[in-house]
Specification:
Oligomer: single chain
Keywords: DNA-binding, Isomerase, Magnesium, Metal-binding, Topoisomerase
Number of domains: 7
Catalytic activity: ATP-independent breakage of single-stranded DNA, followed by passage and rejoining
Strand order of the largest sheet: 2-3-4-1-7-10-11
InterPro entries: SWIB_domain, SWIB_MDM2_dom_sf, SWIB_MDM2_domain, Topo_IA, Topo_IA_2, Topo_IA_AS, Topo_IA_cen, Topo_IA_cen_sub1
Number of strands: 37
Distance between the termini: 79 Å
Largest sheet: 7 strands, mixed
Shape: globular
CATH superfamily of the largest domain: Topoisomerase I, domain 2
CATH class of the largest domain: Mainly Alpha
Structural class: alpha+beta
GO biological process, one term: DNA recombination
CATH topology of the largest domain: Topoisomerase I, domain 2
Strand content: 15-25%
CATH architecture of the largest domain: Orthogonal Bundle
Protein name: DNA topoisomerase
Length: about 1000
C-alpha cells in the first residue's frame, strides 16, 4: 500500500498537521519542502500556486486592447504558475507524481477558495488540456478543519470527506473564478478601449465585486455634494423641581414621519420665529409631569465573524481591514490562539460546548489579570451552556465564528495583543448575562407644549463589566460612570420652566464611508436587492467574502478610484467618470449588487447539484458579450452625465469652461458654445483623471505638479508636471507635460537669483545653502549667482526620483539629519516594480544614495543555522539629473551597490569634542550629535526655532552667541579634520 500525500494551503498549517499526526502516526523526517514518515507525506502550497489564463491562441496582450480583439471567451482555460511561487509548485507536483503516492488529501482551508487552490494544483499536475484528466489521476479525499488545535486536526483526519462529496463545491469554486475572469478581463479591456479612443492608455478596471463596492461610495459622495444644509431650531428647557433641576427638550407629540423628507423630526422647529414663540410661551410657567419607568435589558453582541471584527478593530484602533485580517491570520497560523478567521459565521457548532469550556478554563488560569476573573466567574456561575444564540449548526457555514482556542498565546506583538484581547472580550461577553437598565421617560407639559426628558441608569452591568462598565445606581450625578438619573418629582408637584432657550442648528449631510462602515455596507449589500431569492443569497455572502473584502478596498485605492483621508474613504474623479460611463453605456448591472446576488444564488444551487456548471458558464459568456457590445456600439460624441462648470475662466478668451465626458472645453462668454474660442484639454492626460480642485488650480496657475499616476501609451506609470503653454501657430493654449529639462546654468552661464527663497538647509558637501531650482534641489554654489559667478560645488538632487516626489519637508530632513523618512513610491526602471527606500547622504560617494530598510525575519532561524549579523543597509545611487523624473526611458536605474565599508571618520576639534565626544565621526553623524545636544538642552530659540542659542560649550564652537540652523554644517566643517 502506497503513501498518502497531504497538501495544505500554507507551510504553517503543514507543520501543525505534522505535529498533530506524530503521536498517532509516528515521527516525521523533515525535508526542504515536505515532511515524511512511513505512511504520510505532508507538504503545502503558499496560497494560490496556479492561476487561470486564456490559452495562447485566444489571449490578447496589453497594447492590443482594442474592440477588434474583444470579447475574449476561450472554450477552456489554461493554467499558468504564479511567478513568485514556481519553485513551490514544482516541488508539490513532483511529490504528487511520485510512484509511491497512492492518494491525495486536500488539506487547504475549508471553503470555496481552498477547494479551488487544491483543484488547480491537481489539474496542473495531472491535466492535459482544459479540464481533461489523464488516467494517472489519483484518488482524492478532503480534510475539513474548523480549528487548528492538534485534537481538531486529528478529528478531521478521522472524518475525511470523499471526492464525490466535494464535487459541487469544486464546480462552484471553478465557475466563480472563471466567471470573474470573463467579466473582469473583458469589462476592463472594453472600458479601457473606450476611454483610450482619443489616444494614450487610460486603464479602467471593472469587476463583479469592486465596481458595486465603488458605486456605494460614489453614491454616498453624490448625496454629500448635492446636500443643501437647512437651518432648524430645538427648544431646550431647564425645569426647577423641589429636589433640583432637570433638562427637557420640546417635541411635537402629534408628529408623524414624512417619507419624502428624512430631515423632519419630532423635536425640530423650522423657523426662528416659531422657536422663539415656544420659548416665550413656556418660560417661567409651571409644568405638569407624567413619568414612566421600566426595566430594559441589552444582550451582548454576537461572536465575531471576520467582517464584524474588521469593523470593530477599525472603529476602536483605526486598523485597516487588511491589517486586521493579517493580524487575525497570524494569531490563527503562528500562535494557534484564534480559530480560522476568514469566516462569515457568528455562531458555533452545537458539539463545541466542551471545547468552549476548555478554552474558558485556559483563560481563567491565564496571566491576563484584566480578563481571567471573568472567565473564572463564567465557569463558576455556569454561564457556558448550550444556547441557540451561540451554538447553532444552521448558522455555521464553511467555518464557525472567530473565538480563542484552548491554547494560550505568548510572544504577541502589541497589535496582535490588542486584537486577541478584543476577541477574548467578545467571547466572554456572549456567555455573560444581559446588562440591565432602568429607563425613565418624563413628559413635562407647559401650557400646550410638551418637553421630553430621558434617563437611563445601569442597574446590573452583566457582560458590560468585561468592558469596564459598572452599576451606576448609587453614584451621584456628575461622578465618572454615573448614568442619566433624573432628580425625583413628587406626585402633584409642578416644576417651573426656569430657563428656556431656542438653539439654532443645521442639517448635516450623510457621513462619508470609513472602512468599518463600508465593510458593513458590503456585508449587507443584499438589502439593496429587490428580488427575494437574490436577496436571500446575498444575506449569506454580501459583496465579496470576508476574506476578500479587505483586498477589494485596497485594490480600489491602488487603482486610484478611492483615497484614504484619515479614516474616511473618498472617491476620486476617476471613480465618478467610471460610474458616468457605465450608466451612459447602459451596463449598470456592473454597478449593482444584484449581479453578485444572482451569481451566489446560482453557485449555491451548483454546490447542491441543482444547476450544471455548463449552464452557468453559458450565461456568463452571453453577459460578457453584452457588456463588450454596449461599449463597442456606442457612437455618440459624449456620455450623458452630471458635469461641472468651472469657476476659473478660459485663459484664452475669458469664457466659461465646462466639463463633458472626455474634455474641459471653452463654451464662450455666453456659455452656449456659439462664441467659443476652441480652447479645450483632456480630462485624462496620460490616463490620469483630473480632480475638481486640481483642474481649477491648473487653469488658474497654468501649471500643476508633480502629479503621480500618469501612464505611457505602453501602460507604464510615470510622474510629471503638466503646464498650459501658448501655441503661437494655433493662437491658443495647449496642455503639455513638463519633465523639468532645464538647461544647466553652469553650462549656459545664466545667473540664478535665490533672493526671496527660504533655504532648505546646509549643503552636505560644502555647508552653503540649498534651494529649490527648477525640478531640483541645488547648492547655491553649484550654479552661477551674482555673489559667485563660477560654481564651486556640484551638489544637486531631483525633486522626483524614479517617480517618487521628494517634497521640501523630506529634503529638509535629509539635509538636517542625513536621511529622509521611508519613501514608498519609487519605481524601478528595470523591473517596473515599486519599492521602498530612504534617501541618504553618502559622504564617501559624495552623493545622495538609496538606503533600504532592514527587516527582521518573521520567523526564528532554523535549528542549526549559523547566527548571522544583520547586513549593513544597502545603498544605491539616487538619480540626480532631471532625467530621473521622465516617463520610463531607456536608461536603467543604477543597480544596488555592495555595502561600503565605513571610513575612519573625521577627528573633532577639542572644542567640538567637548560637546559630541572625541571619537572620529562622519560629518552627518556630527550634525546629528550636535542636534541631539541642542534638543536635550533646550537651546532652540523659543521665538524662532531656526535659531540656536549657544551655551558655554557651544559658544566656543560657534564663536558667537547665536547661529541659524543653516549655518551648522558649515561651522562644524571647520571643527572636523
Amino acid at each position: 500500500m502506497g503513501k498518502t500525500l497531504v497538501i495544505a494551503e500554507k507551510p504553517s498549517v503543514a507543520q501543525d498537521i505534522v505535529r498533530a499526526l506524530t503521536p498517532v502516526a509516528g515521527k516525521f523526517d523533515k525535508h526542504d519542502e515536505y515532511f515524511e514518515n512511513d505512511a504520510w507525506v505532508v507538504t503545502s502550497a503558499v496560497g494560490h500556486l496556479v492561476e487561470i489564463q486564456a490559452p495562447e491562441e485566444f489571449d490578447v496582450k496589453r497594447g492590443k486592447w482594442s474592440f477588434a480583439h474583444l470579447p475574449v471567451i476561450p472554450p477552456y482555460f489554461d493554467l499558468k504558475p504564479v511567478d513568485k511561487t514556481k519553485g513551490r509548485l514544482s516541488a508539490v507536483v513532483k511529490l504528487a507524481k511520485r510512484k509511491d503516492i497512492s492518494e491525495l488529501v486536500n488539506a487547504c482551508d475549508a471553503g470555496r477558495e481552498g477547494e479551488l487552490i487544491f483543484r488547480l494544483i491537481e489539474q496542473y499536475a495531472f491535466g492535459e488540456g482544459g479540464e481533461k484528466k489523464a488516467a494517472v489521476r489519483k484518488p482524492v479525499r478532503r480534510l475539513w478543519l474548523q480549528s487548528m488545535t492538534p485534537q481538531a486536526i486529528r478529528d478531521g483526519f478521522d472524518a475525511l470527506r470523499s471526492d464525490q462529496q466535494m464535487q459541487g463545491l469544486a464546480s462552484a469554486a471553478r465557475s466563480r473564478s472563471e466567471a470573474d475572469w470573463l467579466v473582469g478581463i473583458n469589462g476592463t479591456r472594453a472600458m479601457t478601449a473606450f476611454n483610450s479612443r482619443d489616444g494614450g492608455f487610460f486603464l479602467t478596471t471593472v469587476g463583479r465585486v469592486q465596481t458595486p463596492t465603488l458605486a456605494i461610495v460614489v453614491e454616498r459622495e453624490e448625496q454629500i455634494r448635492k446636500f443643501i444644509s437647512r437651518d432648524y431650531w430645538e427648544v431646550h428647557a431647564t425645569f426647577l423641581a423641589e429636589a433640583g433641576e432637570y433638562p427637557g427638550k420640546w417635541f411635537d407629540p402629534k408628529w408623524k414621519k414624512n417619507p419624502d423628507d428624512a430631515e423632519q423630526k419630532a423635536d425640530r422647529v423650522w423657523s426662528a420665529k416659531e422657536a422663539q414663540a415656544i420659548a416665550v410661551a413656556v418660560r417661567g410657567k409651571a409644568a405638569t409631569v407624567t413619568e414612566e419607568s421600566k426595566p430594559s435589558t441589552q444582550a451582548s453582541p454576537l461572536l465575531f465573524d471576520l467582517t464584524s471584527l474588521q469593523r470593530e478593530a477599525n472603529g476602536r484602533f483605526g486598523y485597516s481591514a487588511k491589517t486586521t485580517l493579517a493580524l487575525a491570520q497570524s494569531l490563527y497560523e503562528r500562535h494557534k490562539a484564534l480559530t480560522y478567521p476568514r469566516t462569515d459565521s457568528r455562531a458555533l457548532p452545537e458539539d463545541y460546548l466542551a471545547t468552549v469550556k476548555q478554552t474558558m478554563g485556559m483563560l481563567a488560569d491565564s496571566g491576563m489579570g484584566h480578563l481571567a476573573p471573568f472567565a473564572a466567574q463564567a465557569l463558576k456561575e455556569g454561564y457556558v451552556k448550550p444556547t441557540k444564540r451561540v451554538f447553532d449548526n444552521s448558522k455555521v457555514s464553511d467555518h464557525f465564528a472567530i473565538i480563542p482556542t484552548p491554547q494560550a498565546p505568548s510572544g504577541l506583538s502589541d497589535a496582535e495583543q490588542k486584537l486577541y484581547d478584543l476577541v477574548v472580550r467578545r467571547f466572554l461577553s456572549v456567555f455573560f448575562p444581559s446588562a440591565e437598565y432602568l429607563v425613565t421617560t418624563r413628559i413635562s407639559q407647559v401650557v400646550d407644549h410638551s418637553f421630553r426628558t430621558d434617563g437611563k441608569v445601569l442597574v446590573k452591568p452583566g457582560w458590560l463589566a468585561i468592558w469596564g462598565k459598572e452599576a451606576e445606581v448609587d453614584k451621584p450625578e456628575g461622578e465618572e460612570g454615573s448614568g442619566k438619573s433624573l432628580v425625583p418629582v413628587r406626585e402633584g408637584e409642578m416644576p417651573r420652566a426656569e430657563v428656556v432657550e431656542p438653539k439654532g442648528l443645521k442639517t448635516r449631510p450623510p457621513a462619508r464611508y470609513s472602512e468599518a462602515t463600508l465593510l458593513g455596507a458590503m456585508e449587507g449589500a443584499g438589502k439593496f436587492v429587490e428580488d427575494d431569492e437574490l436577496r436571500e443569497a446575498m444575506q449569506e455572502k454580501g459583496l465579496g467574502t470576508p476574506a476578500t473584502r479587505a483586498a477589494t478596498i485596497e485594490g480600489l485605492i491602488a487603482e486610484k478610484y478611492m483615497l484614504r483621508d484619515g479614516r474616511e474613504l473618498i472617491p476620486t474623479a476617476k471613480a465618478f467618470q467610471l460610474m458616468t460611463l457605465l450608466r451612459g453605456l447602459g451596463v449598470e448591472e456592473l454597478t449593482k449588487p444584484e449581479l453578485t446576488g444572482e451569481w451566489e444564488h446560482k453557485l449555491a444551487q451548483m454546490e447542491h447539484g441543482k444547476l450544471s456548471r455548463d449552464a452557468f458558464m453559458l450565461e456568463i459568456a452571453e453577459m460578457t458579450r453584452h457588456i463588450v457590445r454596449k461599449a463597442k456600439e456606442y457612437d455618440r460624441d459624449t456620455v450623458p452625465g452630471d458635469y461641472a462648470t468651472l469657476k476659473t475662466p478660459c485663459p484664452n478668451c475669458g469664457g466659461i469652461v465646462r466639463e463633458n465626458y472626455r474634455r474641459y472645453t471653452c463654451t464662450g462668454r455666453s456659455g452656449t458654445g456659439e462664441d467659443a474660442c476652441g480652447f479645450s484639454f483632456t480630462k485624462i492626460p496620460a490616463g490620469r483623471a483630473f480632480e475638481q480642485d486640481e483642474v481649477e488650480q491648473f487653469l488658474r496657475d497654468k501649471r500643476i505638479g508633480p502629479l503621480e499616476g500618469f501612464r505611457s501609451k505602453a501602460g507604464w506609470p510615470f510622474t510629471a508636471e503638466i503646464a498650459l503653454k501658448y501655441d503661437e501657430e494655433e493662437k491658443n493654449w495647449k496642455l503639455e507635460f513638463d519633465f523639468g529639462d532645464e538647461e544647466d546654468p553652469a553650462q549656459t552661464g545664466e545667473v540664478i537669483d535665490f533672493s526671496g527663497q527660504e533655504s532648505l538647509g546646509p549643503c552636505p558637501k560644502c555647508g552653503a545653502r540649498v534651494f529649490e531650482w527648477g525640478k531640483n534641489y541645488v547648492c547655491e554654489k553649484s550654479v552661477p549667482t551674482a555673489a559667485q559667478p563660477t560654481p564651486s560645488c556640484d551638489f544637486k538632487t531631483g525633486q522626483i526620483i524614479l517617480q517618487q516626489p521628494v517634497d521640501r519637508e523630506q529634503m529638509h530632513k535629509l539635509l538636517a539629519t542625513g536621511k529622509t523618512g521611508l519613501l514608498d513610491k519609487f519605481v524601478s526602471m528595470r523591473t517596473r516594480r515599486p519599492f521602498k527606500a530612504f534617501l541618504a547622504w553618502d559622504a564617501e560617494a559624495g552623493k545622495v544614495n538609496f538606503e533600504f530598510e532592514q527587516r527582521e525575519s518573521k520567523f526564528p532561524p532554523r535549528k542549526g543555522a549559523a547566527a548571522r549579523a544583520a547586513p549593513p543597509a544597502k545603498k544605491t545611487a539616487a538619480a540626480k539629473s532631471p532625467a530621473a523624473k521622465k516617463a520610463p526611458a531607456a536608461k536603467k536605474a543604477a543597480a544596488p551597490k555592495a555595502p561600503r565599508k565605513a571610513g575612519p571618520g573625521l577627528a573633532p576639534s577639542a572644542d567640538l569634542a567637548a560637546v559630541i565626544g572625541a571619537e572620529p565621526v562622519a560629518r552627518t553623524e556630527a550634525v546629528k550629535k550636535i542636534w541631539d545636544y541642542i534638543k536635550a538642552n533646550g537651546l532652540q530659540d523659543a521665538k524662532d526655532k531656526r535659531a540656536i542659542n549657544a551655551d558655554a560649550k557651544l559658544q566656543k564652537v560657534f564663536g558667537k552667541p547665536q547661529v541659524t540652523m543653516f549655518e551648522l554644517a558649515g561651522i562644524l566643517g571647520k571643527h572636523l579634520g
